[in-house]
Amino acid sequence: MNAKATNTAQLVEFLRTELSPYYPEKEGNAIIFRLFEGILSYEQTDIVLNAESTVSKADQEKFENAVQLLKKKTPVQYILGYTDFYNVRINVDKRALIPRPETEELVDWIVKESGDQALRILDVGTGSGCIAIALKKHLQNAQVMGVDVSDDCIDLAKENAEANQVDVNFRVQDIVDRDGSAKLVQPETLDIIVSNPPYIQYKDRYQMDENILSYEPAKALFVDDENPLLFYKLISLLGSVALKKDGQLYFEINEKYGDEVVDVLKKAGYVDVEQRKDIHDRNRFVRGIKE
Ligand SMILES: C[S@@+](CC[C@H](N)C(=O)[O-])C[C@H]1O[C@@H](n2cnc3c(N)ncnc32)[C@H](O)[C@@H]1O
User: Fold this and answer.
1) CB 15 within 8 A of CB 32
2) Which of 127, 130, 185, 243 has the fewest other C-beta atoms within 10 Å?
């Protein structure tokens, strides 16, 4: 951008030109909108309504810095430092996975099935805390706990709970450590366990975008090629002890392994096991009830 004052329309043109070699048109437009929202608090229509408005030097600089990072494929959420998740603002940085829209569908399933009872909920692999915090915001009588193997994630989740003024009990716990996990909660005391665990096999990393592979934590994404269902098995076993009768176990899943996750739950003794599709018609969620 040159030194003279730039208006919104010229800025959009500049962003399109700069980003088009790096992002397909639709994705580029979505990113441009996110930048306007994050930097100028614009709604989509404001971009048109304010086409002739001058953008201050300081704001132009923010857009220019963002463009440089976007060219290096930095996710726009990390550049802006936040994402909106199920009506909750979640701060994000390289410490944790960026919450995904499909995970909002998992939260929505739980919220719609739960009344205003005093439920006890555990979120395993909480990352930024997005699921736990969104559930606490929408189910105010619930007691929510979130665990993660990563200290960094738990620090970020605590910061997010504070920013959203919710009381969630976050703590570090490696779910592979079965003795430690068993001590997390008393037997038969939980109403709901939810988890979006790591579920991508390392062998599939070549099909993934650079902006995910280079920036998001590997620990949040990948599971051993040899044992892709590890977390589903461990968390189902934890649920068999920790859930009350009729307690519910909710998972986000890799669409490749929907039937296998259903089998894991059935073998662990869950009933009414249901597989659900996301809005793109892909099998992405499983729920089972403890008998
Ligand atoms: C796919 S991310 C989900 C993060 C967040 N719940 C979300 O939906 O955006 C999986 C999370 O599981 C955590 N994790 C990986 N291995 C774990 C383990 N052994 N015990 C507990 N958490 C683990 C990762 O640190 C990561 O935060």
Assistant:
1) yes
2) 185
Which CATH number describes the domain made up of 97-290? 3.40.50.150
Gap between the Cα atoms of 77 and 95, Å rounded: 13
Domain extent listing, the chain: 6-72, 97-290
CA of 215 to the centre of ligand 1 (A): 15
Nearest alpha carbon, ligand 1 atom 9: 99
Q: Is the dihedral of CA 72, 73, 74, 79 positive or negative?
A: positive
90-108 pLDDT tens trace: 999 999 999 999 999 999 9
Question: How many CB atoms neighbour CB 182 within 10 A?
Answer: 13
Q: Is 198 in the pocket of ligand 1 (CB under 6 A)?
A: yes
pLDDT of residue 4: 56
* CA 127 to centroid of ligand 1, rounded, Å: 5
Q: Which residue has the higher pLDDT, 2 or 262?
A: 262
Distance in angstroms (rounded) separating the CA atoms of residues 7 and 259: 53
Give the helix/strand (H/E) hosting 219: helix 218-221
